[in-house]
Design brief:
Blueprint: H1 5-9, H2 12-16, H3 20-36, E1 40-44, H4 52-57, E2 61-65, H5 69-81, E3 88-91, E4 98-104, H6 112-122, E5 123-134, H7 139-148, H8 151-154, H9 162-171, E6 175-182, H10 194-205, E7 215-221
Parallel strand pairs: 1-2, 1-4, 2-3, 4-5
Antiparallel strand pairs: 5-7, 6-7
């Protein structure tokens, strides 16, 4: 069986105790989810629970869509470790119509021309998708992929530039599309220096520099 490098990188420890900069990313996603007023969320491509665990901790019921057996096992273990497994439902497919479909680092693994319309189909009126994705125009991602990841698995990152995402979302029928930049430089390099971290965050939010941001927070409404 092919090794799942994402599970190696996002270990149980990292999922249960996210670093400062990952927590910042998760907080931004949670802030967007909160706007919906929904008590339940779909975490698409949940993995070991990087996002699902945080949503459970914040009182949400989570339907985690995941097909990898090792990931499902780790996600279940992590939910039990925090005592919130009763609010977690794990499935292998999207089911029914929902208000929120969210995820982290999953869009670039999908055929967006298939899955963005699929998400749209499963959303209730005014339902939203909320995703965090790496930006291919930030050169540091290519160094990371070359050194630590499987190039073939991660090559879909090329489809997640600002303009590519916006065009595909529009073509799939979404409205109120927002793509916000998060950080300009890899936050791992300077997260111990809070002042520099704040500057890095603001640079990623800049009207022009956001096109080259390290990461995007993507939201769109049906």
């Amino acid at each position: 069986m092919k090794k799942n490098r994402n599970l190696e990188y996002y270990s149980n420890e990292k999922v249960l105790k996210p670093s400062y900069y990952v927590q910042r990313e998760l907080d931004l996603i949670l802030a967007e989810i909160k706007k919906s007023g929904s008590a339940s969320v779909v975490d698409f491509g949940a993995g070991a629970g990087r996002l699902a665990i945080e949503m459970l901790r914040n009182g949400y019921s989570v339907s985690a869509v995941e097909i990898d057996r090792d990931a499902i096992k780790k996600l279940d273990e992590n939910a039990k470790k925090i005592g919130l497994e009763k609010r977690l439902k794990i499935t292998k497919n999207l089911r029914g119509r929902v208000y929120i479909i969210a995820g982290t680092d999953v869009l670039h693994h999908l055929d967006l021309d298939v899955y963005l319309p699929l998400f749209h189909k499963h959303l209730l009126p005014k339902g939203r998708i909320i995703f965090s994705e790496p930006n291919p125009l930030n050169i540091f991602w290519w160094f990371f992929i070359f050194l630590f990841a499987d190039f073939q698995e991660e090559f879909g990152i090329k489809n997640c530039s600002y303009f590519s995402l916006k065009k595909r979302l529009m073509n799939s029928g979404y409205r109120k599309i927002a793509i916000k930049g998060l950080y300009l430089l890899p936050p791992q390099l300077i997260f111990n220096f809070k002042f520099l971290e704040r500057i890095n965050r603001r640079l990623g939010e800049n009207l022009f520099l956001k096109f080259f941001a390290f990461r995007f927070i993507v939201t769109a409404e049906k």
